[in-house]
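[Discussion] Sanity-checking designs against the backbone

I'm trying to build intuition for which residues belong where. Below is a structure token string of 328 positions. I'd appreciate it if someone posts a full sequence so I can compare it with mine line by line.
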């Protein structure tokens, strides 16, 4: 009988050992799977394999196969492609290294995939910030993912974090993520848009939720607004760089952005002067509008891929952690 895994549970990481340990432990604690086998694949996108020792220790105690992959080429798309190439299963689940999954998370994703015959399943994300964090309500909202209250098919996909993908539906089963988005992010948007254009089925699974605990340096208003600006840039950028190029679409989004920046910018200024509790939420809307207008050239911000470049190919460095030898 084959012992190949049904699911490859993937975590990408870069120099966040405490968060990675929490995410990996939650991934290894998945329950209620019956006879469904899974493996954990951790891809380290650091120039040096700084997470190798930690994953080795966790793998030595794990009851499922654990593999460590070093992708030294900086960039989120490079890391996702290395994970996809290394995954051995026909289903690939993505969990971010700052997320923590409840024990029934993977079971809920799999149930939705089967129930709705989906190619990709997305679940909610619940942001957490320590008590007393400035703009705590806004930051917890910002780092959360909200969706429909009921499970079922959806037309608009979400991001790759907390998702389950059927490999057979990928346009490229080994390197499906757009490397042009290595430093800006949005590589998953490009992929899911392409999949949707050829009929891929997306669904939402509200029971498959995870916690997200952003790193302390991200729990700041300035960082969140920088990301909000980049999120605003995404629609016109993808219209302009798509094949075929949609110039009218890009201009349309820019017009929306002008209105959004003007209206919410004025409202945010008033709320800031009044110290209104929701002022950060309104400023977020204005910043996203500004991103829709300033999405080109020098305004395209880099959020990812800042690790120093090293070798040119990903390398799997585990040979076989002890858990692989004992897994059934």
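Best answer:
Here's mine. Compare freely.
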């Amino acid at each position: 009988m084959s012992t190949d895994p049904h699911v490859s549970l993937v975590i990408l990481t870069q120099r966040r050992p405490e968060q990675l340990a929490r995410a990996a432990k939650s991934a290894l604690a998945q329950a209620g799977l019956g006879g469904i086998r899974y493996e954990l694949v951790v891809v380290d996108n650091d120039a040096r394999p700084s997470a190798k020792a930690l994953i080795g220790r966790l793998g030595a105690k794990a009851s499922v196969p654990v593999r460590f992959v070093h992708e030294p080429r900086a960039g989120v798309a490079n890391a996702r492609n290395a994970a996809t190439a290394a995954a051995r299963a026909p289903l690939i689940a993505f969990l971010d290294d700052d997320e923590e999954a409840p024990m029934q998370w993977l079971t809920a994703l799999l149930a939705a995939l089967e129930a709705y015959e989906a190619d990709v399943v997305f679940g909610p994300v619940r942001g957490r910030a320590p008590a007393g964090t400035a703009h705590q309500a806004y930051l917890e909202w910002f780092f959360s993912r909200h969706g429909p209250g009921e499970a079922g098919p959806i037309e608009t996909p979400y991001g790759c974090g907390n998702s389950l993908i059927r490999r057979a539906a990928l346009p490229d089963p080994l390197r499906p993520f757009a490397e042009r988005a290595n430093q800006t992010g949005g590589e998953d948007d490009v992929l899911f848009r392409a999949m949707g254009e050829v009929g891929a089925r997306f669904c939402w699974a509200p029971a498959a939720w995870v916690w997200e605990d952003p790193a302390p340096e991200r729990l700041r208003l300035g960082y969140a607004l920088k990301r909000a600006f980049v999120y605003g840039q995404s629609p016109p950028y993808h219209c302009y760089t798509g094949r075929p190029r949609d110039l009218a679409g890009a201009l349309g989004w820019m017009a929306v952005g002008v209105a959004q920046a003007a209206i919410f910018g004025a409202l945010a200024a008033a709320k800031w002067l009044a110290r209104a509790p929701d002022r950060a939420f309104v400023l977020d809307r204005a910043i996203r509008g500004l991103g829709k207008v300033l999405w080109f050239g020098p305004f395209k911000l880099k959020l990812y891929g800042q690790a120093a470049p090293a070798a040119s190919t990903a390398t799997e460095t585990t040979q076989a952690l002890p858990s692989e030898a004992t897994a059934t």
